[in-house]
Specification:
Elements: H1 4-12, E1 37-39, E2 42-44, E3 50-51, E4 59-60, H2 62-74, H3 76-79, H4 95-98, H5 101-110, E5 112-115, E6 120-123, H6 130-133, H7 136-147, E7 158-159, H8 164-174
Parallel strand pairs: 4-7
Antiparallel strand pairs: 1-2, 2-3, 5-6
GO molecular function: electron transfer activity; heme binding; metal ion binding
Organism: Salipiger thiooxidans
Protein name: C-type cytochrome, methanol metabolism-related
Length: about 180
């Protein structure tokens, strides 16, 4: 399940200067979210960044559904249901649209601390937590889908089936 672009970002702490511009409404034709190609059930933009795919009938791709599940298992305690934020941590539903993918990976992997007169926030590092790292792209695509309003709040009603490739990658990443 380990992909070279994740390892590069995680180990080198790659920070890209590219920031995505998110308007109040995001067009599905936006190159930062539009599907460029599919590989083994995972969707990517033309630039090779994970993205979501929602069918006309509302069926979400497996990684986005998995991201919903993993987000609610690992992230919502601080960041609130559906990435809407809490009194403890900021909303994340737009982060996947406004934050470069590699910056997102770096912050989740290595954590971040901001201390100042107006702000004191700490994001712990999750780089050694397989329940986050094995599903990091899934969490990212879920936040991207929700932030762009391609899916609403709550559990997606319809999902693609989990493929054998996803099961094999999950087992390999989790060490089983």
């Amino acid at each position: 399940m380990t992909r070279p672009h994740i390892l590069l970002a995680a180990t080198a702490g790659l920070l890209s200067a590219t920031a995505l511009c998110a308007a109040d409404t995001v067009s599905m034709d936006d190159p930062n979210i539009a599907v460029g190609y599919e590989e083994d059930g995972r969707y990517y933009t033309e630039d090779g960044v994970p993205t979501f795919n929602v069918a006309e009938d509302g069926t979400v791709d497996w990684p986005t559904f998995s991201g919903f599940r993993r987000y609610h298992a690992e992230c919502h305690v601080c960041h609130g249901p559906d990435g809407e934020g809490s009194t403890y941590a900021p909303a994340l539903k737009k982060s996947a649209l406004t934050m470069d993918y590699y910056d997102f990976v770096d912050v989740v992997t290595n954590g971040r601390q901001k201390v100042g007169a107006a702000e004191n926030s700490v994001m712990p590092a999750f780089g050694t937590n397989p329940n986050v790292m094995c599903y990091l792209d899934d969490i990212y695509t879920y936040l991207k889908a929700h932030g762009s309003e391609a899916i609403g709040r709550g559990r997606p009603a319809k999902k693609e089936a989990k493929s054998d490739v996803f099961s094999e990658n999950e087992n390999a990443c989790m060490g089983s």
